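[audit] Reproducing an earlier prediction to check determinism. Same input, same settings, fresh worker. If the tokens differ from the archived copy the diff job will pick it up downstream; this log only records the rerun itself.
[audit] input (424 residues):
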Amino acid sequence: MDENIKILLTSELLCAWSYFERLVHAVNDLSKLSQLPESRELTQKMNFDLVELLETKVFKKEFISENVTQLSLSDLKQKCHNTTELFEKMIKLELNSETVLEVTVEYTNLIYEYAHEWHHLCSDFTDLSIQLPRVNLAEAILSPARNYEDLNDEDLLDLGQELEEEIDSTPRVHTSGLSIIDGGSKVETIEVEESSEEMDEHNISEDAIIPLFKLDQKNIKRFESNGLGSIGSLEWQRDKKYDHLMHEGHEAVFDKDYDKALEKFTKALNYKETAEILTLVGWVYSLTGSLDKAKSYCLKAIQKDGDYGPPYNDLGTYLLTEGQVEESLKWFELAKKAVNYQNREYPYINSGRAQMTLKNLPKALEEFSKALTLAPYHEELHNTVERLKKSIHKSESKDWEVNWQGENTKNDFDLPENDDSPLN
């Protein structure tokens, strides 16, 4: 097996193990989910499947104990840790490369399969947010949140009562090195002076979309056969997939297929977490009316890259939509100062819209005029500025606020559309 492929395969293996480890920590240490029958059943099923894999693909039957004992989740975690180390050593040994590749991929997918089940339990019954793995060659297959359709009403009622007794949903202070973010609080009043540490408390759980990750050994072989043996080219592959999914997501938004757009942008997020893709996921949530989720993704984007302007603007836009006008203006001001912002006129346009809502026409004119200097060919903006000037001029001898409330005022101003980051 080529040395670079060994490194790649090891990376995929450890990526899956780290994800599983984070989930076990959430289920076993940060909540009481491990006490649920569903979790106990998953523990025993995974142990059985793991033993079967080792018996049929790795060891002679004589090495395997005939009795598969009942394990706790902590015991299973240690067993998987030891098995992961075993496969890591197998990759380094001069063994049959085809067999090692096949069985390592199978073990990696076994981890992902059960991690997916436990992630659903965490999503359904706690406010914990577990960081998804940043995949390389593994594919993310999206699935909706569980609704336990296979349970009858009586079973569902029993499960609900059991959860009330066993699960402590109070957010806990997380002190370990694992990447689990305690969340659940919704963004209500957002102070502009917040530091990135303070923003952590606004993080919301990983929503309803939990991908099932799957590694295909054909992808690894294709990676090698195409002369992509260097690990450096792996990043190129990820970027290519990321760009393709971004393009498909934008097309889906254009077609108003928001479910598909969210699927594509979420998949792109699994290949590369950037402030841009986090902002886009939030944008799609806003298009479906889920403003709390939209705001939470803006905050995540700001934490990811404080120099990236669009999430500041978008967050202000969502607040403006909710009627929090003064608060929205604070975020538009931050967007104006952002270093990385291609369409810098947007926060000025949205500030103008906010001032119009406050019935401050002179200030609105000032904001729209500044936007016009940044986007001199914006015809709609030109029209708005001219009409504002005429209205203010007519109001010099009158109370312009009365003029604002006149019946025909709405028809006098064609405000620019709600401009935000997706047009970057």
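[audit] rerun output stored. Observation attached for the diff report: Residues 97-125 form the longest helix (29 residues).
[audit] end
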